[in-house]
Amino acid sequence: MTYAIIKTGGRQYRVAEGDTVDVDLLDVDAGKTATFGEVLMFADGKNVTHGDPLISGAKVTAEVVEQRKDKKVIAFKYKRRKGYHRTVGHRRKLTRVKIKSITGGSKSKKS
User: Fold this and answer.
1) Which of 25, 70, 71, 106 could form a disulfide with 93 if both were Cys (CB 3.0 to 4.6 A apart)?
2) pLDDT tens digit string along 50-69?
3) How far apart are CA 20 and CA 63, in angstroms?
4) For residue 4, what pLDDT is reported?
5) Close Cβ partners of 52 (under 8 Å, ≥ 6 residues apart)
6) Euclidean distance between the first and final Cα of the chain, in Å?
7) Strand, coil or helix: what is 55?
8) DSSP H helices in 1-111
9) Do 9 and 22 touch, CB atoms closer than 8 A?
10) DSSP classification of residue 52
C-alpha cells in the first residue's frame, strides 16, 4: 500500500491514493488539480523514504472536490458571581481534496 505524509496549512496529513481529505483552505477552484510538494515521508509496500525534512522531487496530486466550512466551534467565557459571560465562535474554511497520485522522489541531501 502506497502512502505519504504531506504538510499543508501548518498541519501534516497521512494520505493514500483514493483518500478524501479536508485540508485548510486552498486557493483552487472545485474540479481543478492541486499539487502538494511538501512531502515528508513516502512509503510503497516495501521501502520507506523519509526526508530531511522534505523529499526532493516527491509530490502528491489531488483533485479539489469542494470548498466548505467546518462545524461551528463555540468558546464560552464565564466568571462566576461577576456577571461576566462572552460567547465567541467561528467556522474554519476547508478544502476537500481527493488524492489521485503519489510520486516518490529521491531523498534530499543536507547541504
Assistant:
1) 25
2) 888 999 999 999 999 999 99
3) 9
4) 95
5) 107, 108, 109, 110
6) 32
7) strand
8) none
9) no
10) S
The position carrying cell 478544502 is 95
Residues β-bridged to residue 4: 15, 42
CA atoms within 13 A on the CB side of 42: 23
| Nine-digit cell string for 33 | 488539480
Nearest one of 33, 38, 34, 35 to 6, comparing CA atoms = 38
- 82 SS3 class: coil
Taking only the tens place, the pLDDT of each residue in 88-108 is 999 999 999 999 999 987 654
Find the helix or strand (DSSP H, E) in which 85 lies: strand 84-103
**Model confidence, pTM:** 0.81
* 8 A C-beta contact, residue 54 and residue 40: yes
Q: Nine-digit cell at 44?
A: 510503497
